[in-house]
Amino acid sequence: MSSLPMILVLHGPNLDRLGRREPELYGDKSLKDVNAMIVDRAATLDVGVTMRQSNHEGQLIDWLYEAEDEGVEGVILNAAGFTHTSVALRDAIAAVNVPVIEVHLTNTAKREDFRQRSLIAPVCTGTISGFGVNSYLLALDAASRFEER
After folding, report:
1. pTM of the predicted structure, to 2 decimals
2. Architecture of the domain defined by 6-148
């Protein structure tokens, strides 16, 4: 019996405040709720998932490198505010030989000017945004098919 393909889900800064932080933008589901939804969907897709959250840029970078070292099949990354500011995170994504899907709960193209530019999008496999917590589930659907490329 072969092991399940593993997908790493990385939640960036302030996502630990989901459900409390600006619910009119980000919804009323907590990060715990979102992670439970991801686990449920992963079970239907026959993939394993590991989820981690950090408010620290360097921690996210370390986890990307670990993902490559551990043979993770793909990464779903909501870099949150680091999307628009972090050259270091962009360089780490470019450096790993692991497909990365950029995820956002809101449609960043409809947000403030500074949120409309993603530094990481050019080095990600794809971007899913604007579907609320379902953005994660859509990304998981896509990540479960990486082996088909």
Report:
1. 0.91
2. 3-Layer(aba) Sandwich (3.40)
